[in-house]
């Protein structure tokens, strides 16, 4: 295996299915049956076991499985200064499913202060030993994409965006100072550009798809422009993942030149597990030899194991558009983007990661 820098030849998006003990403890905490310290003890123990399991099967980027979170995005965003986590009247609409009725809203000026996720990272770092720790947070784009805004606090969206960028610049430096060298930004906002239907929704909301895309690009590049040179920042572009269902469909074509040729991240984790993701052709817009493309060819939504030879064939197909040396392999998304988890067994996720490792070793040596 010649490439041992993040993102790795065999990698993963970050979240894992929550063990039953953790689900029970979170439920008891929500019902005021146990204290936060008691919940934390269960979280700590579950994360330590998860770290060891990842090491046992050869995972190169160690995460905490997002075990301390209820959502992949709201927990981080809701803990920023100027933000609030709250109960909504309606959840998000996924394919034939509505999410839990929870969300975030702007209640003051956005900033990054004493954020609990820094301590969450330090805990993983402490117990991961010499292994590379990957920490995942929502993209800055998710704040203006998912938060309920406040026109009195931010009458001009541009001011909200600039404060969000400054907050993320502080966050990136804080994670770096805590020892983080591999940070991933998770982003579903790009999926609004992937189909005629989703672009029509943007227009109906009074947004121009091209301007929306330019804003997404600007926010990412500005947020990471001061990152230290020895820190890897990747981005996972997702079409939604909630209880094995999805939010949107469509290929990368409309936004391909910006995503593959205009973002200054070190790597891109991309969904390519089914026909909803389109073809590999948009990869032709990759214009940097140092940009790693992590192909999400193995689904995290269901337990059935993919055919090894078929996955290897698809990697070769992608290599027609971008150098094989720039490609990596992973699941298409996390196994549990929310604490609810996808519809598969815990053993299935380990089988899939083992398959990914085997394929990567056979292709790249």
UniProtKB/TrEMBL annotation:
Record CDD domains: CIMS_C_terminal_like
Listed Pfam families: Meth_synt_2
Domain Cobalamin-independent methionine synthase MetE C-terminal/archaeal stretches: 13-338
Protein name: Methionine synthase II (Cobalamin-independent)
Top-level division of the source organism's lineage: Bacteria
InterPro entries: Met_Synth_C/arc (IPR002629), UROD/MetE-like_sf (IPR038071)
GO molecular function terms noted in the UniProt entry: 5-methyltetrahydropteroyltriglutamate-homocysteine S-methyltransferase activity; zinc ion binding
NCBIfam families: PRK06520.1
GO biological process, one term: methionine biosynthetic process
Natural source organism: Ureibacillus chungkukjangi
């Amino acid at each position: 295996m010649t490439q041992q820098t993040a993102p790795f030849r065999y990698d993963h998006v970050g979240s894992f299915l929550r063990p039953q003990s953790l689900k029970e403890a979170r439920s008891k905490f929500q019902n005021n049956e146990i204290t936060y310290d008691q919940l934390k003890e269960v979280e700590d123990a579950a994360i330590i076991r998860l770290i060891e399991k990842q090491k046992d099967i050869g995972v190169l980027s160690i995460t905490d499985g997002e075990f301390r979170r209820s959502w992949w995005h709201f927990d981080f965003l809701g803990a920023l200064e100027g933000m609030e986590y709250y109960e909504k009247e309606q959840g998000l609409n996924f394919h034939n499913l509505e999410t839990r009725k929870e969300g975030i809203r702007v209640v003051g000026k956005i900033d990054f202060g004493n954020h609990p996720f820094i301590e969450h990272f330090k805990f993983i770092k402490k117990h991961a030993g010499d292994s590379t720790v990957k920490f995942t947070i929502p993209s800055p784009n998710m704040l203006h994409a998912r938060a309920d805004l406040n026109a009195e606090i931010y009458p001009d969206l541009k001011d909200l965006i600039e404060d969000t960028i400054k907050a993320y610049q502080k966050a990136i430096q804080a994670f770096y100072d805590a020892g983080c060298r591999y940070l991933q930004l998770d982003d579903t906002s790009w999926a609004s550009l992937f189909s005629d239907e989703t672009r029509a929704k943007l227009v109906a909301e009074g947004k121009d798809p091209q301007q929306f895309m330019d804003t997404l690009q600007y926010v990412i590049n500005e947020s990471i422009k001061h990152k230290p040179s020895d820190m890897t920042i990747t981005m996972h572009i997702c079409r939604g993942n909630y209880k094995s269902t999805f939010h949107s469909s469509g290929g990368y074509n409309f936004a391909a030149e910006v995503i593959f040729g205009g973002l200054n991240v070190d790597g891109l984790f991309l969904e390519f597990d089914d026909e909803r993701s389109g073809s590999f052709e948009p990869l032709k817009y990759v214009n940097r030899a140092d940009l790693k493309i992590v192909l999400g060819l193995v689904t995290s939504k269901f337990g059935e194991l993919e055919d090894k030879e078929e996955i290897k064939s698809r990697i070769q197909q992608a290599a027609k558009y971008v150098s094989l040396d720039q490609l990596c392999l992973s699941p298409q998304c996390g196994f549990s983007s929310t604490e609810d988890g996808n519809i598969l067994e815990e053993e299935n996720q380990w089988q899939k990661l083992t398959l990914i490792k085997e394929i990567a070793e056979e292709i790249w040596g």
